[in-house]
Amino acid sequence: MAGSTLASPTAEAAAPAPPAVSGRDTWRRFRRHRLAVVSVGVLGFLVLAVVLGGWGWPVAIDEIDFAATLQGPSWAHPLGTDDLGQDLLARMIYGGRISLAVGFAAMIVATVVGVVVGALAGMSRRFLDPFLMWLTDLFLSLPQLPLLLLIIYLFRDQLKQAFGVEGGVFVMIVAVIGGLRWMPVARLVRAQFLSLREKEFVEAARSQGATAWHLVTRHILPNAIGPVIVAATIEVSSAIIAESTLSFLGLGFPPDIPTWGRLLYDAKDHLDVAPHWALFPGAAIFLTVLSINFIGDGLRDALDPRRVL
């Protein structure tokens, strides 16, 4: 009939992708998690303290004062001093920059590698998926700490020559930690891709001739990014703990670079006379990791589409 209008198959196939959750809705869900909101404030304070603290407390980290060795907190030294009379507040501020930088840089490496591997495995319908998952399981089965130590012994000197002492150790630790932490992200992304690639809006875009790159970047990855963000927050805390462990074992940054883990290592022989030396860097690591974990919990709740607004 002339008055009737029939929908073409092309128009039916062009089903739009489900709308993304707005930022306002995400924030409404996130702020319901009280511990996550408090953790944002705690983590923000720690970040600002280590980034801007040098201007508020301009004390050299290598200034030695033998008359003030192993002193407790005071007005002159708010966090006390070490066995050389060096100010622990200044060393905490300096070391916090390195510890946080290692954590976030290693997270970026692990997330990028994990997303690429997971996306390739999730979009593959033939041999690539089994091979990448076999590779992922292989890396998961490797003992990480012995492998970390082996890689550090093999490549530490070459990287120091290429990037300098501090830069070489930073590149090595970030590459090693990030290169051994991508597997959970890859498995998560693969699972999301396997589920989303069969959805109606993806099939609609595929029927209109969309390329695999277009499907991944415009339809699948944006809808899978929520769990990836949550996983990335966990990787930050894992990287900070791994760097602290290496520094505590004396295999991270050199002794004159006071990361939080290195401060703990230096304080272990003076716990009976100067417990403050270990208490403050240990508390900083604890609060940072705990805050990041709570923020990850809040993001998981906020980005879960199954939860009611």
Descriptive account of the structure:
- There is one protein chain.
- Helix 2 crosses helix 12.
- It is built from twelve helices and no strands.
- The relative contact order is 0.16.
- The chain is elongated.
- The longest helix is centred in the last third of the chain and has 37 residues.
- With 309 residues, it is mainly alpha-helical.
Termini Cα gap: 45 Å
Tell me the structural class: mainly alpha
Tally of helical runs: 12
- Mean pLDDT across the residues is 82
Task: List the quaternary state of the chains.
Answer: single chain
Biggest β-sheet, characterized? Answer: none
For the secondary structure, the number of strands is 0
Which parts are unreliable, with pLDDT below 50 for 5 consecutive residues or more?
Answer: 1-15
Order of helices and strands: HHHHHHHHHHHH
The helix content, as a percent range, equals 55-70%
Strand content: under 5%
Features:
single chain; 70% helix; mainly alpha; 309 residues; 12 helices; elongated
Question: How is this structure best summarized?
Answer:
The chain has 309 residues and is mainly alpha-helical.
Reconstruct the topology from this structure:
Blueprint (H helix, E strand, L loop, with lengths): L8 H5 L9 H9 L2 H23 L31 H36 L4 H14 L2 H20 L1 H15 L3 H14 L3 H8 L4 H37 L11 H8 L8 H27 L7
Helix pairs in contact: 2-12, 3-4, 3-12, 4-5, 4-7, 4-8, 4-10, 6-7, 8-10, 9-10, 10-11, 10-12, 11-12
